[in-house]
Amino acid sequence: MISAQTLSFHHGKHHKTYVETLNKLVAGTQFEGQPLEAIIAATAGKPSSTAIFNNAAQNWNHTFYWQCMRPKGGGKPQGAMVARIDAAFGSYDEFKKAFAEAADTQFGSGWAWLVVENDALKIVKTGNAEVPFTKGQTPLLTIDVWEHAYYLDYQNRRPDYVNAVIDKLLNWQFAAD
Ligand code: MN
After folding, report:
1. Contact (Cβ atoms closer than 8 angstroms) between residue 145 and residue 109
2. Ligand 1 centroid, distance to 83 Cα (angstroms)
3. Contacts of 7 (CB under 8 A, 6+ apart)
4. What is the pLDDT of residues 18-32, one digit of tens each?
5. Distance CA 75, CA 165 (A)
6. Residue 15 Cα, ligand 1 centroid: separation in angstroms?
7. 172 falls in which pLDDT band (50, 70, 90)?
8. Whether residue 123 has pLDDT greater than 90
């Protein structure tokens, strides 16, 4: 599971700092008041806008990540997602294996994602603040694998955190919506 202490630091300090830093960076620029998606699209891959991109994308990623979890979530999905998971991965167990492997093997900081690309489900990973939707992939679920997401609870055991998210927290209703 994820402790209250981790959530307090992750949401109350890390995410909060991304919000405050982005607001400072865009103040008085063309990006002030713009939606995060527009800021991310305009700054992705541009070395002159790295700081704005990183902070905008980390705001987007975290806002998305919080919605990917719920109390008593995780485990096999029900409803519309079942057929999509089976079609793409063969079974829920194969999906779980692939999602966990992506999260466990992302080298350094980043994110593991379940996305839709060309109408098919797919698992991808991104480094640091990178988002899938600048590459035409629509995110359905994500796991934050920056150390700040798990280190207080699991230290170096990232796979234990990843399994806890997949088995006990994933919000399949959010993914289906
Ligand atoms: Mn994070």
Report:
1. yes
2. 31
3. none
4. 999 999 999 999 999
5. 9
6. 7
7. very high
8. yes
pLDDT(129) > 90: yes
Q: What's the confidence (pLDDT) of residue 138?
A: 98
Q: Which DSSP state fits 157?
A: -
Strand order of the β-sheet with 138-144 is 120-127, 110-117, 138-144
Distance from Cα 34 to the centre of ligand 1, integer Å: 22
Beta-carbon contacts of residue 68 (< 8 Å; ≥ 6 apart): 141, 142, 143, 169, 170, 171, 174, 175
Q: Would you say 92 and 81 are in contact if contact means Cβ atoms under 8 Å apart?
A: no
Percent of the chain with pLDDT over 70: 100
Structure tokens at 38: 């527009």
Q: How confident is the model at residue 141 (pLDDT cuts 50, 70, 90)?
A: very high
CA of residue 87 to ligand 1 center, whole Å:
31
Question: Separation of 86 CA from ligand 1 center, angstroms?
Answer: 30
Q: Which two tokens stand for residue 171?
A: 């919000």
Q: pTM of the predicted model, to two decimals?
A: 0.97
- 10 alpha carbon – ligand 1 mean position (Å): 6
* Residue 93 CA, ligand 1 centroid: distance in Å: 26
Cα distances from 54 to residues 44, 51, 78, 89, 111, in angstroms, run 9, 5, 35, 32, 13
